[in-house]
Amino acid sequence: MKIVIVGASGNLGTALLRRAAHEPGVELVGISRRAPRPEEPYSLAEWHEADISTASAESLARVFAGADAVVHLGWALQPNHDEPAMARTNVRGTRVVLEAAGLAGVPQVLVASSVGAYSFGPKHRAVGEDWPTGGVQSSHYGRHKAMNERAMDAFEQANPDVAVTRIRPGLVFQPDAATEIAHLFAGRLVPVRLLGLMRHLPVLPLPTSLIAQAVHADDVADAFWRAIERRARGAFNIAADPVLGPAEIAAALGVPRTVPFRRGVLRAIVDLTWRLRLQATDPGWIDLATAIPVMSTARARAELGWAPTISSTAALDQLVDALGAGRNLPQSASLRG
């Protein structure tokens, strides 16, 4: 079985390589802007260097030829002060990957979508994969994920014989990517080890509407692999329990208590510091975290036989520990421009 992974050196790509390493008879092909060093798990794959923001569908189709499945994980979260640059990777790149898969006659395409593709939704009950995927329009991440959902809709209509699989995880954590995650969301002016001190705060101020879901990267990789094995079509929500509200986040960090913090005030602080380039999180992430719905994972459990092996609180706890230790994959540098 030949599997091509676009964005194979990133957070999810690394986890999928680890997962595939346990399977016999699998040929892995990785695509990245720059090939990582030949160390495990990266040494398990044949590598091709390509930038999906500029690559042609024809050039990618040559790499995709003979693949049983193409997994598209490529994504840019920065530079978020330059949305057109991100869109060239996130939106244009996804269209090109889909076009290339069609040209190569690949029987299955799996795309990393997200809870961020969903439109504004409830926090008090879980929604299924049929919830509207219009995104949160004040978030570049939500807009781009929604655009990609429409691109997948069009691709499915034009290629009815291709199994299109949409994996929609919550926040994806793994300790080995802690430093890179910190740089993406906090920026390089904020010392990574300082973020690890969050567990020593006496109180944690958070908006009560900040309710999110998280999952370990290895569990997301397992969902992708199960979907490949079954050639499963459609969308699958992927998240671990419990749902992370202020109390659960504080407990995972070991902070004694939380205090309510007005969403508008937090958004204004994030907006100002982002505009001043003091940190790297734009205010759209606050809108996303407080607006997207809580997802039901019932379909993944029933149709893929999937279940998380690591709780959301344990995944968060591992990440914060790794931030304090400054852990990072040496290959993560290949993700930076």
UniProtKB/TrEMBL annotation:
Q: Which residues form the NAD-dependent epimerase/dehydratase domain?
A: 3-239
Specify the domain of life of the species encoding this protein.
Bacteria
Q: Which InterPro entries does the protein's record reference?
A: Epimerase_deHydtase, NAD(P)-bd_dom_sf, NAD(P)-dependent_oxidoreduct
Question: A Pfam family this protein belongs to?
Answer: Epimerase
- UniProt xrefs under SUPFAM superfamilies: NAD(P)-binding Rossmann-fold domains
PANTHER family, sorted = NAD(P)-BINDING DOMAIN-CONTAINING PROTEIN-RELATED, PROTEIN YEEZ
The identity of this protein, by name, is NAD-dependent epimerase/dehydratase family protein
Organism of this sequence: Herbiconiux daphne
